[in-house]
């Protein structure tokens, strides 16, 4: 029997089929919407390791049921890097994946053609829904038995290096330069350098991944564009680090590319490319995305330069203020030192005055004591008396009589007791010229008497001032 001929549908039949497709898809969405929130909460529990369903629902509600935002936020906290979504006020890195202005380019497979194609699609639609629902239930149950090892990121850099080595073994070393760091580090570098970041998620089991890597990603013109105009981060979704990023970006199919840049002071996904895309088409799409968003980078560069200039100006002002403050502090220090020096000098002068006063008082007391201890003056008629005339340093003269038997110390004590005599002095005789040993010394432990000193009945002795010596 000959196969039936495929006939072109009339316009009325086509419209009815399209209406039927819309109704079927609406029915499919209505069935899945009721369980969507529950499955999102279960998925969030499995990906983040949170055991409380209420906490998962609360976290998803905070992120407007945006699973990639909630998961990325939790995973970044576990890794110890700043939160990507809903960060603290210190302005850590953000990635906005919920922007409705994201440019999306999807290379889809051909739609059904003809009556048989549409009929097969509509008939299989409920079966596909049932199949995927049962598959999800099976995967959910399997997670309790054997948790997905990809859900725990232990060595993110090792995942990147391992993927790069496997990529080079399979497709050669002619490829865009891979960013050798974690996804968070790539975001930070792209933000710091104000560059585009192209993220590639590799699906090892997808039928289009091999052709895309071999013919598109390794094309010389694609390599040149990526290496010169953006950072390139890639990883397999079979690796924990790639799986984590996959849960955050929520790709629909492979190959998957996402363009991320600093936009409105947040790292934002500005373009998504999904499906098998040819080299020329990829270059055009990437160029279009960059041209459409270049103004944001230019604006951010200008703002950053302005902030840097403001910061430099503020730093210069702070340095000038600190210099002025240090100068004032130095002046104040010198003033304190000068006041302290004057205070010490005044104290020293006062101490010297007190010491001088004590010395004079002690000297006066010593003079009075010496005067009281002097023996009485002999009478002029005493044959053993000696008349001595003393010439003092101030040219004044003092006369007194002493006894021959008295020691020269008595002469010294008499002169010492005089108010006009110096504090320290020696007594000299002229004929012969000599110094009288009036005080004990090594040569004269006991000073001699006036007779032993060879003094006559009348003598003139000179008092030599030794105070300054």
What is the structural class? alpha/beta
**H/E series:** HHHEEHHHEHHEHEEHEEHEEE
Radius of gyration: 56 Å
Distance between the first and last residues' Cα: 151 Å
| Secondary structure: helix percent | 40-55%
Mean pLDDT: 80
Count of runs of 4 or more consecutive helical residues: 11
Low-confidence stretches: 1-9, 22-34, 79-94
Protein name: Fas associated factor family member 2
Organism: Ovis aries
Would you give an account of this structure?
The chain is α/β, with parallel strands linked by helices. The chain has 11 helices and 11 strands. It has helices spanning 11-48, 53-62, 67-79, 114-145, 156-171, 183-193, 209-217, 220-229, 240-249, 279-373, 408-417; strands spanning 95-96, 103-106, 196-202, 230-236, 256-263, 266-274, 385-391, 397-403, 425-429, 434-435, 458-465. Strands 1, 2, 3, 4, 5 and 6 form a 6-stranded mixed beta sheet that branches. The chain has a 5-stranded mixed beta sheet with strand order 8-7-11-9-10, covered by helices on one side. The longest helix is centred in the last third of the chain and has 95 residues, at 279-373. The N and C termini lie far apart (151 Å). Residues 1-9, 22-34 and 79-94 have low confidence and may be disordered.
